[in-house]
Amino acid sequence: RVDGQAVTGTTYTSYQEPVERLLGLEVRGERSSLVQWTVLQVSLGVVSARCQTGEGQAEHMERMTDGSRAAMAEEEGEAVDRYLRRFLTLVIGKMILGTRGDPVGCRFLPLLEDLSSVGNYAWGAALLAHLFDSLGTSSREIGVAGFFPLLQVWAYYHLPSLGRGVARRRGAVPLLQCW
User: Fold this and answer.
1) What are the DSSP calls for 36-85, one per residue?
2) Which residues are within 8 A (CB) of 32 and not within 5 positions of it... i.e. 6 or more apart?
3) CB atoms inside a 10 Å sphere around CB 18
4) To bridge 2 with a disulfide, which of 19, 124, 126, 156 should be the other Cys (CB 3.0-4.6 Å)?
């Protein structure tokens, strides 16, 4: 979404307390706003969630969904909220407001405290602002820090004059089949 509440808030000098309270994870470095990507993956049980040899995208997604549903069905109450916050931190911190390298930024974590309001934020606008900000002013900068395919999908829907391709592979992600 590009409409909704602004993705904004207070910047803290340390995110140790919100990370420990909301995610149940330890933060290394007292003044850090970063959590290691691999720590989040391990905490969600998806560290070995790669596509298996000979497995198509549809089968991979089905296996991942079934595994996640089974794990979530065993949890209750606050534990489910903690897992959901960890998942959202992984998605938002790596894909929407991504950083280069392994660490995942947690500056948005206070916005995940009330899970019922997460869908009211304009995450699409935050992504576009983050991608624009990460372009930098240096002539040596050749990449962006965010999840660039999201911008490509947005352009696909909102800039039809760019043209659309033809799907070449069966079993590709359904959105890609449109291309």
Assistant:
1) EHHHHHHHHT-TT-PPPTT--HHHHHHHHHHHHHHHHHT--HHHHHHHHH
2) 14, 15, 16
3) 19
4) 124
At 34, phi and psi to the nearest 5? -120, 145
How far apart (Å, rounded) are the C-alpha atoms in residues 179 and 165?
Answer: 5
| Cα(1)–Cα(124) distance, integer angstroms | 5
* Half-sphere exposure (Cβ direction) of 112: Cα atoms closer than 13 Å: 23
Question: Where exactly are the structural domains of the chain?
Answer: 13-121, 122-168
In tens, the pLDDT along 83-92 reads 888 888 888 8
Retrieve residue 135's tokens: 């372009």
